[in-house]
Design goal:
Blueprint (H helix, E strand, L loop, with lengths): L2 E2 L31 H14 L23 E10 L5 E4 L4 H19 L4 E4 L7 E5 L9 E5 L3 E5 L2 H17 L5 E9 L5 E7 L7 H13 L4 E5 L1 E2 L2 E4 L8 E6 L1 H13 L3 E8 L4 H6 L8 H4 L20 H17 L4 E5 L6 H5 L2 H10 L5 H17 L3 E5 L17 E4 L5 H5 L4 E3 L2 H4 E2 L15 H7 L8 E8 L9 H20 L7 H11 L30 E4 L23 E2 L8 E19 L12 E7 L6 E7 L7 E17 L11 E2 L1 E6 L2
Parallel strand pairs: 3-4, 3-5, 5-7, 9-10, 9-20, 10-14, 12-13, 14-15, 15-16, 16-17, 17-18, 18-20, 19-20
Antiparallel strand pairs: 1-2, 2-8, 6-7, 6-8, 11-12, 21-23, 22-27, 23-26, 23-28, 24-25, 24-26
Amino acid sequence: MPQETPAPAPRSPSVRTTPHPGPYARRRNRRPRSRAPWLAAAAGMLLSLAPGVPASQAAEPNPAPVTVPSVRSWEGGTGTWELTRDSRIVLDRGDAGRLAPTAAILARELDLQEGLRPRIATGLPGRGDIGLALGGGAPSPEGYELDLADSARITAPDRRGVLYGTRTLLQALRTSATEHQVARGTVRDHPTHGERGTMLDAGRRYYSVDYLKQQIRQLAWYKLNTFHLHLTDWNGYRIESDKYPEIVAEQHYTKRQLRDLEDYAARYGVTLVPEIDLPGHAVSIGDARPDLAFSCESMSRPSNGWEGSDRGHWTLDYTKPETRRFARELVAEVADVFDSPYLHIGTDEIPLRPAQEACPELVAYQKKQGYPYPGDVLVEFIDDLAGAVRAEGKTAQVWQWWDFQQPTSIDPDKRTGVTEWLSPPGGRAAEGYPTVGMEESKLYMSAGFGATPGDYAFFDVRDVYRDYPFESAPNILGYRMARWSDRTYDYSVGWVDYFARRPLAVVADRTWATPAGSPVQPFLDAYDRVGDALPVTASDPADPGSQIGANPGLYGQEGWTATATSEESTGEPGGAARAVDNDPYTHWHSDYGAALPQQLSVDTGAQRRLAGVRYMPRQDGGINGRVKDYEVLVSTDGERWRTVAAGSFSEDRTEFTVPFREVEARHIALKVLSEHGASDTFASVAELDAVRAR
């Protein structure tokens, strides 16, 4: 019988510190990896078929593959399916036209990851082939079945489901103990939520198109399907405008770039949701068109402390016919760029009732319209602009704000979707609004405000993974993680990106398969093992401006042990075991009274083919012990060590990968020679992992 299996979990990204050919470089001339596991599995299969063999001696069914998100249902077989130089990607003849783009993506990725590029054919798949076909009985269009036997067959009712099946196959190959092989069995998989994704604030901060494409691949890698792009804010309107070129920021996206980006996203099953935020967050628009902005001080320079609100022109004057006309024309122009079914119009962080009542022109309009509250004017504007969106054949979405800490006598049209940031989405959905959950206290990652657990808008993966409900109910469309760019302008893209990686994987796993209350450590272990989405080419493993793509997957830490030359146990919990506990927020710390150098040594439990280590600095906000100069050592017996790499880490909170020439070893160690702290006395490590050689 199929088993509902909460799958194992992936691992984390990293930054290279020394030149190397790249983790996805092809290994066509590598000696074949040992087939001992395959032989053992085959022997077990024969044993299970032999007459008179007790059931207790029959081969155990294969365990589920390690993927993120975990697969919902796995029926384990025995033995393995193997990708070979003769393997093909075979399309059902009737589906070839629709599945050819997916097949091309898979062929390129297998080439990059496995060093084997199958040719694409039509017909029936044979031994070692990968079959792609539309059909089957998955309960959702995004569901699929992956049957791993003589061939690997992926069947789904929709092209997106087929794509997701290929993600599972790629991850299973990457995390398999044996090169080019995957345990036989059958995956039956589908998501629990319709919309699953992230929002990126590209209004406050411009991100390159290459980075946006990389994020699309990362979303698809985790079977996420929605990319909400917040494209305007107080310091930049970032969409080319023929109608109003004066409002466009110097760093912006052309219409051609955005159309190409949407086409790129469609190939990966990702829907773009563009957002232009009106009438607030409009400083840059008001600077270019002061005639459209409020002149009253309370609405122009609100005292709420919002970044940029002290510059004036924060709010467009939504009582003016000219402003309404401008907003409708802007909506029509943006709607023409995107095929997306949605257009988000913002309408958040409008100064609240005291500021509204202090604005003469707003109060005058309120009284003219006969509204009891000034907040009713905002609702009128929302309905006006949402109607303009519907006239373009799309559904408008807004942030929940119109009734935040202020009364209204009217509510927006319930055809308008709501992004619920204040609370879980269930309450708003029960009112009849199509609702997306993006709760500020749980699902925001705003590293510019703080990058330590407990800081405002810090997404704590432990808390959210274990405890956040991710409700399913009528009118709850799904969930998105919010990535805001406030106060990040002096940080690299890679730094900002780093703090969103685990949160993205958490949203993926929890909205696809895993119920609340599940333990987080196995998930984090699987996250590390799965690693990141594949890059565009082998020669460019880390795309420009980002660290994603640098980690092809690590070994899982399950069963590992660690020792150190010293440990602190009085001033703080600093045992060596904390560096291999799959918890990013614990760490090993050397004894306060000891001096450098100090060494952290890890026993991985078996001989392994290693190609590097991944070092994570302490993540709790503390300064002591962040490693500067180091050596990496390996050993087969834990007694005789040899140095395989040395260098210096920058003073950074992100993870670092130190690559080295492939070795066979059981033990790895990080020897800390100096630290970035003022005392140059301490050593600390949050996590020490081994990079798999492929």
